[in-house]
Amino acid sequence: MALNPRRGWLDGPIQMVYYWMCHFPAIRQRGRNPLIRLSALFVTGFLIAVSCTVTLASEAPLNLCTAGPDGNYFATGRDIAAHANPRYLKVLVAQTSGSMDNMQRLARLECGAAIVQSDAYLVYQAKHRNKPVEIARNRFLYAEFAHLVCRRDAKVATTDDLLKYPGRHKILVGAGDSGSALTWHAFTLLDSRYAQLSAEQIGGEDALGRVLNDQAQCLFFVSGLGSEFGKRVDQRGKGLRLVPITEDVLRNAEFGAATLYETRHIPKGFYKNLEAGLPDSGVATLTVGATLVIERHWSAKYPNGPSALLGAVSGAMPAIVKRATAGLK
Description:
Elements: H1 11-29, H2 32-57, E1 60-65, H3 72-82, E2 89-94, H4 99-107, E3 113-117, H5 120-127, E4 135-151, H6 159-163, E5 170-172, H7 179-190, H8 192-195, E6 198-200, H9 204-212, E7 218-223, H10 228-235, E8 240-242, H11 248-251, E9 254-255, E10 258-259, E11 261-266, E12 283-295, H12 296-301, H13 305-324
Parallel strand pairs: 1-2, 1-3, 5-6, 5-7
Antiparallel strand pairs: 3-12, 4-7, 4-8, 4-12, 9-10, 11-12
Helix pairs in contact: 1-2, 3-13, 4-5, 5-7
């Protein structure tokens, strides 16, 4: 519970001052040296009490790691900062390269909290077994959808069509340590069949162009519905289609006590070209949770910081959800 510096936080020191003033004549009669010693003791105690109380009640500085300046993570960080109570929390929204970069910064204690994908911890620990990140608390923010888009002439209707013939199709899974490549890496850790597929770390417009030119048969990306890239894929995707991702091993995957993915449907008709001719129920796929994680060392240093941060998140949630679901309206 947050401290209230206006109610009773100096009661102890004030009572000490009151006692000192009321009993000053009696103390003075007992001699000068005891008076000097008592004065020094009082001043020291008063300063310590005030110093400790001010430390507890003052703002906790927080580096909140997000992603690039044009994405939802950075915008979400700014929403959270805008709702932070400046008496208890000062948030600096840090631009980063995304979830994996954020995990590395958390490990180096450069960030007290970060926004990451729900599967980021799994992938980070697989790559950095000797540099664990200690998470004190986490908070789900919104869902991002996994999109698997393939050429219609590649005859890929389900992921089984890929997994049965692992060398037949090339899949472009996102650049480097992007969120898309991170989730694909998580798939390979959870289901060894995905590790056998021909996947290449190319993303964005480059990946879309290669698929359209038949240099690859599928592309994979993770984004909110209605993202600018998703819109461009649909606009240029008359020869492309969405492919469901529904494997039980992925759908039921857990890491620690947390479920990594949730199955949801991309609404029918949301993507005009990508969903043409597909079932009216929409395309089932996995969603990845955009999640706020709070690092343990920061929590220990600023005991009231996590509560202040989660309070700011609660205040920012209407704006966060509105942005994340804008494509559904």
